[in-house]
Amino acid sequence: MGERAEIEKPVVDAIREAIIRGEFVPNQRLVESDLSAQFTASRANVRIALLELANEGLVERVQNRGARVRAVSLEEAIEISEVRMVVESLCAEKAAERITDEEIGELKALGKAMRKAVASGDVMGYSGLNQELHRRVREISGQHTAGQVLERLRAQSVRHQFRLAMRPGRPSVSLPEHLAIIDAICAHDPAAAAAAIRQHLSSVIEALREAEQA
């Protein structure tokens, strides 16, 4: 069983990353033979990988039509953000309690890089730093189960998040929210860290609704 998992995991990871990067678009059919050739994997391993990705909510099985990339609606993306608000608040609280001096330096350096990216108009760079900050808060918190949940939620809503990140002026809105998260965690203030996360994700939800109406 362990050997099989070692064989399958690279295939699962490769297809997952392709979906997250947008190489496969919502509702696109995922043909086992094509995936087998693209990722140099057996049909059996591709089939198992698609089942795993269906469990994660990235792929859906359609009767008599195989698998396709699952489309996430705006309503579902908002629900995901609401769940993230609860779970990431927990992570922020724990991170504020556990953070070391070395990790404080790391988060402050991330904040500095985010300021620089926004000032220079580097939207893609800022988007990457945004993801890095949220990932590091999860890691610093030590909440492994929460981290796994959040990673799955992030993967499901990534296309909505990317569209939001590309909106003109959005980085200037989210930058002070992210800096507030960093400041609270680095100050070892769990309550303020949780409040900062809630404020940020409330802003994300509002922006998602506005983007859909635009």
UniProtKB/TrEMBL annotation:
What keywords is this UniProt entry annotated with?
Answer: DNA-binding, Transcription, Transcription regulation
InterPro entries the UniProt entry points to: GntR_C, TF_FadR/GntR_C, Tscrpt_reg_HTH_GntR, WH-like_DNA-bd_sf, WH_DNA-bd_sf
Q: Which superkingdom does the taxonomy of this entry point to?
A: Bacteria
UniProt-listed Pfam families: FCD, GntR
Q: SMART domains this protein is in?
A: FCD, HTH_GNTR
Q: Offer an example of a GO molecular function term for this protein.
A: DNA binding
HTH gntR-type domain residues are: 5-72
Kindly provide the name given to this protein in its UniProt entry. Answer: DNA-binding GntR family transcriptional regulator
